[in-house]
Amino acid sequence: MTGYDAVVLAGGAARRLGGADKPTLRVGGRTLLDRVLEACADAEETVVVGPRRPTARPVRWAREEPPGGGPLAGLAAGLRQTASATTLVLSADLPFLRAETVRALLAAAATGGPYVEGVLLTDFDGRDQPLVAAYRTEPLRRELALLATEHGGLAGLPLRLLTDELTLGRFAHPTASFDCDTWEDVATARARIRDDGSVLDEWISAAKTELGIDLDVDTTALLDLARDAAHGVARPAAPLTTFLVGYAAGRAGGGPEAVAEATRKAVALAQRWAAEAAAGAAAAGGGAVAASAEDGKAGKPAEDGAAGKPTENGTGAEAAPDGTAGDPAIGRADGKPVDGGAAGNPADRGADGKADGAR
User: Fold this and answer.
1) Model confidence over 273-331: pLDDT tens digits?
2) Are residues 190 and 49 part of one domain?
3) CA-to-CA distance for 21 and 38, rounded, in angstroms?
4) Does residue 131 sit in the same domain as residue 42?
5) 40 plus 162 within the same structural domain
6) What is the pLDDT of residue 309?
7) Is residue 167 domain-shared with residue 236, that is, in the same domain?
8) Dist CA 248 CA 252 (whole Å)
9) H or E stretch including 247?
């Protein structure tokens, strides 16, 4: 991709928002201006035209003359601080603009041919969006100078006076040019940001902005680490481990390499921890089997005859002292105990089976 400068117009009055400072409205945890600045973060120079505001990354500031003088006056002010042959022009209220869309737009402008002086984004309905566009800088300056001469200045002039004089290509994208002109637009943007499946990326970007962190984070590696810590150690270990990784990376210099190295070490530790825990559980399970064999719960039968080893009387239980469960050799054939001769040894019975003492 060829180098480019970016001019971000952030000086509008936002009348339909009741005069609210539109670029500082938050969508998905970040200001609209910061979202746009992230999309053009690889610009060689970024100029924001409008009142100075806090931003997540360094920019140059310019002011249109007069303040609030409209997009052409703002564009001319921004171009005075740029030098690249290509200028990306953006409004400051584009919640769905992404870096990949910016790169595609710039690529279209670079390959459009020698007579193409810029490429505009077109929206879902096919309408031109001249404030989401990549222009060749020289024709842009030329036409702005001609318009200023013709009209005695640029304040209040509509954008179409500029775009009508340029040879422009088109690049279609259904959502990148969605802007926030009303409170309904802001509400729609906030709802879509949470529903479009990228809420985690949005949250990471918002957190980085809030914490002043300018670092590309490998969220996949960190999520894998959190999973390993939660499953291999304990659930509360996940957030604590990622915190410790961040702290260690900060002490080591805080760059992407430091984060990657701290993450690698923590992942290896979590995996070793899980393996050791599994081995310990297996060893403990084997010991439990051996112990249960010794106490008669499994394996060797207990000596009291409750289960397993047959007792001397062959019934599975020792004969009680009172003969209530006696040896068949001294009890009746039906197993009832002998009591005062009422039940004798079968050897002492007659042919009719009655005990001799009962005859």
Assistant:
1) 788 777 777 777 665 545 554 554 444 444 444 444 444 444 444 444 444 444 444 34
2) yes
3) 19
4) yes
5) yes
6) 44
7) no
8) 6
9) helix 237-251
Do 139 and 282 fall within a single domain? no
Q: Calculate the average pLDDT of the chain.
A: 78
Q: For position 267, what pLDDT does the model report?
A: 85
Q: How many CB atoms lie within 10 A of CB 215?
A: 12
Q: Do the beta carbons of residue 166 and residue 119 sit within 8 Å?
A: no
Q: Are 309 and 303 in contact (CB under 8 A)?
A: yes
Tell me the chain's radius of gyration from C-alpha atoms.
43
Count of the separate structural domains present in the chain: 2
Q: Is the pTM of this model over 0.70?
A: no
Distance between CA 155 and CA 151 in Å, rounded? 9
Q: Is 142 exposed, middle or buried (0-12, 13-18, 19+ CB in 10 A)?
A: middle
Q: Are residues 236 and 168 in the same domain?
A: no
Beta strands in the chain (DSSP E): 5-9, 26-27, 30-31, 45-49, 60-62, 86-91, 118-122, 128-136, 168-172
Residue 178 belongs to a domain: yes
Q: Are 147 and 161 in contact (CB under 8 A)?
A: yes
Q: What is the mean pLDDT of residues 113-122?
A: 93
Amino acid at 171: F
With a CB cutoff of 8 Å and minimum separation 6, the contacts of 146 are 165
The rounded distance, in Å, linking the Cα atoms of 139 and 145 is: 10
Lowest mean pLDDT among 29-38, 56-65, 115-124, 315-324: 315-324
What does the block give as tokens for 267?
């992942």
Query: 118-122 and 168-172: which strand pairing?
Result: parallel
Q: Measured between alpha carbons, how far is 73 from 233 in angstroms, rounded to an integer?
A: 61
User: How far does the chain reach from its first CA to its final CA, in angstroms?
Assistant: 122
Task: Give the structural domain span for 188.
Answer: 5-194
* Whether 224 and 188 share a structural domain: no
Specify the CATH number for the domain of residue 190: 3.90.550.10
**33 and 155 assigned to the same domain:** yes
Residue tagged 């609209």 (tokens) = 32
Retrieve residue 232's tokens: 């291999």
